[in-house]
Amino acid sequence: MAGCLKKGLFKIRKNRKIAKDIYLMILQGDTSAVTAPGQFVNIALNGFYLRRPISVCDLSGDMLTIIYKVVGHGTAYMSKLEKGRHLDLLTGLGNGYDTSCSGDKPLLIGGGVGVPPLYYLAKKLLEQKKHPSVILGFNSREDVFGEQEFKALGLETVITTADGSYGISGFVTDALKNFHNYSYFYSCGPEAMLKAVSDASESSGELSFEERMGCGFGACMGCSCKTKYGNKRICKDGPVLKKEEVIW
Amino acid sequence: MVNTHVNLSGFELDNPVIPASGTFGYGYEFAELYDINILGTFSFKGTTRDPRFGNPTPRIAECASGMLNSVGLQNPGVDQVIAEELPRLKKCFRKKVIANISGFSRDEYVCCAEKLAAQEQVGLIEVNVSCPNVHNGGMSFGTCPSSAAEITRAVKAVANHKPVYLKLTPNVTNVAEIAKACEDAGADGISLINTMLGMRIDLRKRKPVLANTMGGFSGKAVFPVALRMVWQVYEAVRIPIIGMGGVSSTEDVLEMMFAGASAVQIGAANLQNPFICKEIIEELPAVMERLNIQNLTDIIGAAHS
Ligand SMILES: Cc1cc2nc3c(=O)[nH]c(=O)nc-3n(C[C@H](O)[C@H](O)[C@H](O)COP(=O)(O)OP(=O)(O)OC[C@H]3O[C@@H](n4cnc5c(N)ncnc54)[C@H](O)[C@@H]3O)c2cc1C
Ligand SMILES: Cc1cc2nc3c(=O)[nH]c(=O)nc-3n(C[C@H](O)[C@H](O)[C@H](O)COP(=O)(O)O)c2cc1C
Ligand code: FES
Fold first, then answer.
1. Which end of chain B lies in a sparser environment, N or C, as judged by fewer CB atoms within 10 Å?
2. This prediction's pTM
């Protein structure tokens, strides 16, 4: 699955706001190192010592899309970058989701900025003639993004908001109750959500985790976690782990 | 043609560039990226007698021009390193490697040193004395001249004639005094600096960023402090020094050597740019020519009057 990382300059083609504090950036460059949905890139930012890990949201030819939330100084800096500027990226990082496990009707469950990697995953599953459904959870109406894009792929897409201002009121697990007969699930989002999804799910599945990273490519042991299959590095052996191996 | 060769107590290096322990794993992550045989050598991840998971996460925090880590010596233990990591490394690295060892007691150091010194792939033993001594109230071996000397003697006795370099912590009042104590106890060389103790607080959570509260500060920001310590140790001892701390460019390598380093390690910069060592090695001859340096060995300590 995971190949070899590449380091290269990408040109910013687009960088615009799509929801409250949420930005979409399209980057053009050598994307050949990206081999699976759920992988991430690690972005060097001027004036910041560590790179910022962000999931691949979409990929088409040499165009790579990311969606990121402004949560601190680094992402605030990113949101102000103008198109035409170049960014230094490490690409092809992480294992990514294993689409061969999905069965015919996988369920994709994303929360907040865990939604973006599921988009590229959905496209890959569709290419393989599978029939995914999607549950996306947000805090409030103003945070919602991605609904139209998933629907445009022709997928059943259910939105939940914690405050009930849009879609189903509650968490993704409240929507999950209405789904049965799914063959597998893929999830990405805050850890509390991942645990709730793992507990409530009726099938096997895969979950994508976050950790603070030093390198992002397996060299520093900064991002280790314990699993039932031994110690793993979130950046290299993850970020995607199987439901069965996670120690909560 | 300039000459980039250097020598560490008989260990010949094609060039002085050495990835530092803890930032280069056991080599093969980088071997996927470039031919690591171009390196002088590298220092592998700090290895202990028993396998260690290390500290809880978060283990990494960003700082201005640097980073904190509290990895806590995660490693598979010396037996597994010998059984699995070294054979795997052999497939992609034909040079001898620096074995970086750690321990929480004298016996642990001795155990690791003895086993690793017997490995043909090991060219030098680098003894990290920054760890707390569990038999001495947790005080680091490297902060007390007599403890550092004791570890030096103990490791030397089992080192199978391989060079033993003591890797010193900067978290002391007088680093030259510790270095001198190691030299007197038979150390073949000194490596410095390890990381400086630091911390950050997450204002939103009102808690330290690192789960371990404190961690080791390294990266570009520490370069002047590291350079100063290499300078001071060079004045105090006659054995070779491997200089490190914040080195991020070819010029930094040369500054370290002018201050007294016979070779230079590069740590955190590998995490930012996995190709940094390769880039520095490729650039080194041109920068030497520009600065009229024929033989790299000529500049070791040359800034001292
Ligand atoms: C594999 C992976 C994929 C990710 N994908 C996305 C994505 O698609 N969209 C998105 O918006 N965010 C994503 N994140 C989270 C994103 O990396 C952080 O929000 C971002 O690094 C914050 O940077 P900052 O400078 O704004 O925040 P600050 O808090 O100022 O950052 C300080 C340091 O902490 C690190 N950090 C802070 N929050 C996180 C976090 N949640 N995870 C890891 N490191 C963190 C930063 O990288 C930086 O080193 C992902 C994280 C990981 C590990
Ligand atoms: C993530 C990380 C892990 C480290 N692990 C070790 C280790 O296991 N043993 C050791 O002697 N030094 C370790 N160090 C210290 C480095 O080898 C080096 O001495 C220090 O970081 C200063 O160099 P730098 O500023 O170039 O990083 C580690 C440093 C980092 C950043
Ligand atoms: S971040 Fe360095 S090993 Fe994962």
1. C
2. 0.96
